[in-house]
Design brief:
The protein is an alpha+beta fold. Helices cover about 25% and strands about 35% of the residues.
């Protein structure tokens, strides 16, 4: 094999590995606020979405097989969506805490989450 063919084969191999490596990366634009979801609910219906907000105090209901709560917008507590979640809960999920959720908007005000992420608890106290 001559040098030109070897170089071309190496470049093709590296490009293939690069494409395969990027296959599993989530290319979403980030997290939407509750206010953004509520600005166009039909536009987000049925889509996989990452959202963030605050778990409303007094709304967290844990029952066997299902957890639900209201997710408030960080800037306007009057804007909220109902979240249903089936799965293992993060140990530090609590009312009044910021969370990020991933899932599907199933109606104008209901979100079915398949993933919930909470911030790490602080080791420092004031």
């Amino acid at each position: 094999m001559n040098k030109k063919k070897k170089t071309l084969l190496a470049v093709a191999f590296i490009a293939g590995v690069f494409i395969i490596g990027l296959y599993g990366i989530d290319s979403s634009d980030g997290y939407l606020a509750v206010s953004e979801l509520l600005s166009d609910p039909p536009g987000y219906a049925g889509q996989n979405i990452n959202a963030m907000g605050i778990v409303e105090v007094g709304s967290l209901e844990k029952s066997p097989g299902m957890t639900s709560f209201e997710l408030n917008d960080e800037n306007d507590e009057n804007l909220k969506i109902h979240v249903n979640y089936v799965g293992n809960l993060p140990s530090n999920l609590a009312e009044g805490k910021q969370v990020t959720i991933s899932g599907t908007m199933v109606s104008e005000s209901t979100f079915e989450a398949n993933k919930i992420v909470t911030g790490c608890p602080s080791k420092y106290t004031e």
